[in-house]
Amino acid sequence: MIDRAITRLASRSASHPVGCLLLMLLVLLTATPAAAFTVNINPGSSAVFLQVGVGSFSGVYSSGGTPQNNPTINVVSVAVPPAAVISGADQQMTSDSTQAISFYDGFNFCVPPNQVYFGGFYRRPNTANQTALLQAIVPAALVSAAGDTIPFSQIRWTSGGAGDGTAAQPVPAGRFINGGVQTIGNFRRNTWNESCLTFFYDNDPVPGGVYEGRVIYTLTVP
Prior knowledge:
The chain is mainly beta.
């Protein structure tokens, strides 16, 4: 008898003007790069904004809207059926996030539940050539209640978005490291950056169970 594994990726998806968000991977199990949406924004007062999954905004940014805090914790998950356990085929995760629109202009940019929205900006009223670092603090492994582990490098993601064209994504496709601080992307000063990420589990053989881990995303400015 083959045990079924379940994977959940929970993301604490809060729009946060000071740019610190939490992504939780519950359970383990694990796209095609596309292009990007990056647009210049007016400098205005200094500000940092980071959103993962569902967020809140007063209106939209291009019409004078401002970001709001949102404590929603989204879950990305996959249940691996016995046939997939046998085949070892990569498993796509889906999310309970309903975030489809861009808060830049209201455009339907992501396609939930298959994609998770990532976006933000670093606004500063000067001409210095500076960038903010989008980073992830990653544990070494996801852990089950029985103490079994799955390396975090078993989780990867692809990046895209509706109407992107062919430019590079501000949040590019990648794969988690096995513990440590990982740079995910770079947001140029006074630009709005957003991508839609799809997560996958590599589905290497592991004991059945629910595996959990937490990734903390931050947007760090000079």
